[in-house]
Fold:
Amino acid sequence: MSTYFSPEALKFLRGLKRNNDREWFQARKDVYERELKTPMLALVGEINEEMLRFAPENVRPPQKAMMRIYRDIRFSKDKRPYKTNVAAWWARTGLEKTSGGGYYFHLSPDEVVIAAGVYMPEREQLLAIRRHLVEHHAELRRVLEGKKLRSLMQEFDGLRLSRPPKGFSADDPAMDLLLCRQWGVAAHLPPETATKPALLKEIVERFKAAAPMVDLLNAPLVPKPKRPLF
Structure:
């Protein structure tokens, strides 16, 4: 039987949203460990098993894929110590320390988010993807317009530029895609989705539908294998 979350998990996240401080969290840390962290790690493991069939390069150990609930507040004006969601990010092998295309899931008091794409590419990656899309924009459009993907997820706005990026022609047929600073799709579902046995199916079905898009966006970012000298 696949893993899903209890109503107590949602209750904890709602309480954390109202009481985002260390004293409240520490008094209920056992609830977090039992109702959120443990099932999340189990769920990631189950998703990994399914992803071996369509995105093996993005499979990651559960402890690596699951994101910390603790916020980095060193350079932030917002000093709340905790995120109010539990989340996981499946980066591609070789791109773990950058921001290539990957898969994302989170549960918050307000929603379940299932997403895939490139979110915060480094400057060199952004340029590489844009150059790749000049030649492959028609292929990306076909993927994004696929009936299955469109029925499950929505394309996000991509933090678009107001003018063409430097080095690209304003009349390039790929310009609507080149204006983006991120590319991807997402589904926003009711938080109660996470408390149902179909949760694994909901996530995997969307990840699988988005896999061709993720592979296309990663193509210019993946290091090319070295040719043998002899």
User: Anything to note?
Assistant: The CA atoms of residues 124 and 221 lie 9 Å apart. Residues 29-51 form the longest helix (23 residues). The first strand starts at residue 86 and ends at 90. The two ends are 51 Å apart (CA to CA).
